[in-house]
Amino acid sequence: MSNIVSALNQKTYADGIAEVREIGLQGMITLRGDTASTAVKSAATDVAGVDMPAPNQVNCVDQRGICWMSPDELLVLCPYETVADNLAKMRKSLDGAHALSVDVSDARAVFDLSGPHAREALAKLVPVDLSPDVFKEGMFRRSRMAQVPAAFWLHAPDTFRIITFRSQAQYAFDLLKVAVQPGSEVGFF
Amino acid sequence: MSTRLATGGRLLNKSRAVSFTFNGQHMTGYEGDTLASALLANDQMLVGRSFKYHRPRGIVASGAEEPNGLVNLGLGGRFEPNQRVTTTELFDGLTAKSQNHWPSLEFDVGAINAQMSRFMPAGFYYKTFMYPRPLWKHVYEPFIRKAAGLGAAPKERDDDTYEHFYAFCDVLVIGGGVAGLQAAKAAADTGARVMLIEQTAHWGGRAPVDGGEIAGKPVDNYVDETVAALEAMDNVTLRRRMMGAGVYDHGYVLAYERLTDHAPDMTGPRHRLWRIRAGHIVTATGAIERPLSFAGNDIPGVMLASAVRDYVTNFGVSPGDRTVVVTNNDNAYLTAIALKHAGLDVPAILDARVLPTDSALMAQAKALGIRVLMGHGVSTVMGGKRVTGVAVCSQAGEGSILETIPCDVVAMSGGWSPVVHLWSHCGGKLTWDTAQAAFKPDVDKAPTGADGKAFVTAAGSASGALLLADVLSNADAAGQAAATSTGHKTARNASAAPEASHTPEAPMAPVWLMPQGAGIKLRSKAWLDYQNDVKVSDVQLAAQEGFHSVEHAKRYTTLGMATDQGKLSNINGLAILSDSLNQPIPQTGTTTFRPPYTPISMGAIGGEARGDVFQPIRRTPMHDWHDENGAEWEPVGHWRRPYAYVRSGESTHDAVMRETKNTRENLGMLDASTLGKIIVRGPDAGKFLDMMYTNMMSTLKPGKCRYGLMCDENGFLIDDGVVARIDEHTWLCHTTTGGAERIHAHMEEWLQTEWWTWQVYVANVTEQYAQIAVVGPKAREALEHLGGMDVSAEALGFMDWADGTLGGFDVRVYRISFSGELSYEIAVPASKGQALWDALMAVGAGLGVMPYGTECLHILRAEKGFIMIGDETDGTVIPQDLGLHWAISKKKDDFIGKRGQERSHMVDPTRWQLVGLETVDGSTLPDGAYASAEGTNANGQRETQGRVTSTYHSPNLDRGIAMGLVLNGPDRMGEVLTFPGTDGKEYKAKIVSPVFYDPEGEKPNV
Amino acid sequence: MLILTCPCCGVTGEETEFHAGGEAHLKRHGPGSTADQFEEYLFMRENPKGVHFERWRHVYGCGKWFHAARSTTTLEVYGTYAAQTHEPPKDLRDTISKKVPGWTWREFQ
């Protein structure tokens, strides 16, 4: 349906020291439950098609993946149009277990921040050590991006994928645009 | 006069001239100049007027400690006051204006204050302008404010951008002099992640000026080699033009990087505020030379001895042709020697000490033909806007003039004080160094971090080691210790600092007043604080008047206040205070060192948070549509909700009235997406919600909705909303717009910290859905036009909800009403919100649909007597006050707030109760007005008996309606109360039922 | 600005990622409690100079509440531990005793 639009409809800013792009609709399911239990693990892995990540890690291939959110919460990623089916599948496999699975695809906005200066652009906004030796591929961090909550990981060597709340998408985009403003290279990493 | 020398200037690029203006006058300098050196090169010694007496002020220092050289820099959107000329790098087109004078720098009317200075000692303003009191506000204060103040406030919006940067390292070395370089090298050699930051544009600090050799080569070679070595290391970051501004708890440091101040044409942010978390911090911040307190020491041309040689050596500038050096230590001899080598005249060195034999430096000076007078000092400096000579006296005497020496510069040195600011910011203690007569870091009392261990080490002269060899070995040890404390192993022997050699120096002798027996006439011309016009006599007066605490004396006299924070004046002032109190200096102590070390820009503090990203505005999926259709915005938390959709030719009030009537008569649409939506699920979810809400939620049947109230443990109402039961184990709780995050957190808190064995999960799905309220008599018809699910009264009764499709959209429809009209709230995934809104507007077109905003919503709910969290509640209101007893379950043993509501004050029958208020004349009551009562209270104020909580003009009833809390209100129906307004009028209103419209509730139930 | 380690997810973050939640180990008194008990629960708080036990929430991270033992004077953090307990763990109390002999806090020492 053409009338389904992500928060910023894939808005892009490419004139700065790194590229900012809202990636459009991404299916997301919040799964709360005992992440150590087999039922919860397999509910997540069956839908995402990736292995269960360790704490504070993410496994993500293209649009499918699992983000470790907390000891009792996972964020399961899948293509947007498959969420309803996957949610049904997940609920079926969780039948009887105490768990909560819910579609949050529309509650979020997802950005890619990419390019050789992506690390230092993000380091202007998040109180997290993003040194290449410290923040590596596979790590998943929930934190604060300036004044709003955000979660991010290295989706590719030079690309951060960043999740924010949908209502704050414009703020997040504007914020990232300031962080990548021309001439603002830091040269720290 | 001051002028540019033909040779010298190690920091200059003489092949590139730079032009600038000062007070409109065109001048030139060279690339590498500071504004100070360029002004001196143009014979502009006079740079400003002092704060209180408007005395002429010249450049005193060459670095961050400069108290006088403050200018208004730049124009328009780049205007900034109080910029230090000594730390402003010269660039082409720089525009500077001097401050604190009128009409001109050369001729200043305010200087009359100086003539009056005898009558304006410390505390003058406090004592003089006390009475009569009314004059303070209208006469004294405006006058004083006009006369005082530093610089001018910018008038235009800042043209530049700023940013923050979060950095992490093992060892942060602050200060890029030889100590900082050596400490950084020592730390980096262990493999630790090291950052080295330097506030100026140059590495090496002042060691290259002061001479000596490192590893048999000039200091400059050592600096170049060490910088090159550090640059080659992957684990080291070097930054210049970056000041360590403050040291905070647990190794947090703010550092202020000036990116384009020296080259404003560069693109990119102007300043970057670094938020650094360091495992260990090395403060290699150097030392600052102290002035000497003698009469006339503020006359332009009196400078720090070190600054004089900085200008000669670094910038090839002669501050004057004839310089008298006055000192209590050997170090100032370097200035005399440097001047001689530059071909300038040094008629005399006045040395307050009496040494048994000549020191090496003294011998050098004498060999150059300089006259050295031991045991001598300055009685008074002669001159007005420029030094013309000094009157010489014996230091031991009372100032009798022995001879006068013509000169145009006095280079003074009272010894050196380690820069302990950053050490002290986070609790590092100081110890008194008797040999140097200065406070230095007490190594046993360093600031401690999260692990309880010291996290700051001072290095080099900042630690009290003033001589080159000591500086290097001390710094090397500091660097190693810092790295070791962060878990890195050093591969070195105890010290790998290179050998350094320098001319030995004889001990200094403390001199706090010159001459030591100076009488009041001299003392009241001996300045301690140039910026704030504090003299020796002022501090003595403060002590005499009982301001014994150093913090009190500071505030009484203003010693050490304002932009320089007493970098030059502190120790001298303390010494005078201690002397007046007859106690040793360590007993007096210091004032508190607070960040930032030198002022930083407001822009840097704000960082990216300005303009569009000043605050995180939250937008619903239909935000842009609202914006394009006349929405005036109301902030609700960070959300922006349409207040009303104003049409062309309409006032906001007109729009609200139109929307309100139309919703009652035809069809209204409200974007209700901002309401909180929280999923609560689990075997214990019902039990949990029974604790959260005052109502019984566990008995709610799937498919049904119930209005619920939430209280805190005090019993006060904190939120309300409709709860829908989804299935056996799942509920969906609506919260207020501002309540979603708060109530979600509230639920998580109780689940995690009190009832952690209960099997409940919650999820905040507020933003997953766009929610649209379709309201009015034609609401059902509109949905039927969309087509799909059955929305008839039979299929979907009042307070039911159902999943289904409407117009091809998968929706969840709640038949709930906050307006008293037939109403459906329709939820769709946010991505489809705009499409559904468009579809509803299309089908509503023939039904008279109009979108409505929050003000209309308020009027509709007020007409029905529905409460609003934040209007009827203010954190002290319990549901019982609002006549909501029906929503408080009596069957439950417990819920959050139940015990609180049982307290005697909460069951007091005299608590004000909710009623409707109807003005006698149909006007609208002022919001928040109080109902007056007979008599006065203990404070003589009129007694009150109620207050207005919500008040509107109702277009449907065509009169003012209001709700309020009134003493015994529900028992006083029909009684008329008086509400005095702040406009002087008295409003009369009758107590009525709060339900003004459709009291039988027939309209939503069709 | 403090740094804290969340014992729930293991992340070490700065203070702005957390939210302070007041005194730890309060006992809830609901209906049926005396006025004194309720006052104690709702209003009476420790205000120690030195060792303190307090609640924090990793609000910008995993969202979990936890407890921290911290010095109110030096700001040293002796340790953090799960919120699902009624008293500070023994090993943490021992750790504190080594650093601050003779400390007391409410009924604990």
UniProtKB/TrEMBL annotation, chain A:
> Where does this protein have coiled-coil stretches?
none
Signal sequence, start to end: none
User: What InterPro entries does UniProt report for this protein, alphabetically?
Assistant: SoxG, TrmE/GcvT-like
Q: Which Pfam families match?
A: SoxG (PF04268)
Gene3D superfamilies reported in the protein's UniProt record: Heterotetrameric sarcosine oxidase, Probable tRNA modification gtpase trme, domain 1
Look up the domain of life of the source: Bacteria
- Protein name stated in the entry: Sarcosine oxidase subunit gamma
Organism equals: Pseudosulfitobacter pseudonitzschiae
TrEMBL record, chain B:
| One Pfam entry name | SO_alpha_A3
The residues covered by the SoxA A3 domain are 524-606
Q: Could you state a single Gene Ontology molecular function term?
A: sarcosine oxidase activity
Annotated region described as Disordered, given as residue ranges: 483-506, 929-954
Give every GCVT N-terminal domain span: 622-892
UniProt domain FAD/NAD(P)-binding: residue ranges? 170-423
User: Has keyword Oxidoreductase?
Assistant: yes
Biological-process GO terms, alphabetical? tetrahydrofolate metabolic process
UniProt biased composition (Polar residues): 934-954
Its name, as the record gives it, is Sarcosine oxidase subunit alpha
Q: Which organism is it from?
A: Pseudosulfitobacter pseudonitzschiae
Automatic annotation (TrEMBL), chain C:
Q: What Gene3D superfamilies does the annotation carry?
A: Folate-binding superfamily
Instruction: Extract one GO molecular function annotation from the record.
Output: sarcosine oxidase activity
GO terms for biological process?
tetrahydrofolate metabolic process
Q: Give the protein name, as stated in the record.
A: Sarcosine oxidase subunit delta
> Whose protein is this, by species?
Pseudosulfitobacter pseudonitzschiae
Q: From which lineage does this chain's organism come?
A: Bacteria, Pseudomonadati, Pseudomonadota, Alphaproteobacteria, Rhodobacterales
